[in-house]
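Model it.
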Amino acid sequence: MKGLEKTIVVLAFLALISQTIRHAYMLWFEPRESVLDRFDKPKGEIAAATSLDELVRRYEAARKQVEDAREERKQERAQSKTGETEVYADQDSEPYKSANELHSAIEDWEHKASEIHELRFFWMIGLVLLVVGVVIYKRLNRWIGFTLIIAALGEFIYWTSPTFFGGTQEFDRLLWNKLVLSLVSLALLGVVVWMIGVFGEDRPATEGR
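Modeled.
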């Protein structure tokens, strides 16, 4: 039993420490700027947006420009034949490019907001499992208790795992949530290790239930 406990705890520590370092790197040390950013207006607007409403307002303005541009082109080529090549060119030029990138940014923002909600919910589930597991481990049955502790650690590790892509303020908010919860998970793991004596002296076989 002790050998299994030690192995699981060491692996959990390794996973949480490496994830915490990764979150800190992405927040404070990862290069995010490029010399080409000044030539890309949509990316600058997306990175500067502080709320979803702000992105939506900019998207609405871009959509209006797209509709005006399409109406103007429709009138210009009313009798001409245009194929997919021209449609593709439209999407790669302004104002179509800005509208598409803002649309993608809004979807990404909503996805990250959903991730934050899931992260907090399932991390709390993990916390409940951890508390119940420790109580059962100490008072009822070591195997059942430690099984719940493993399940709790699995929730902590999975839901605080690194997120690699994003270019909005909501992405940074998600990273902050993961960083804080990773640190709290490490602290809780340390407390649990101390409470159940994982690295203490092996108990007599008769004590294992």
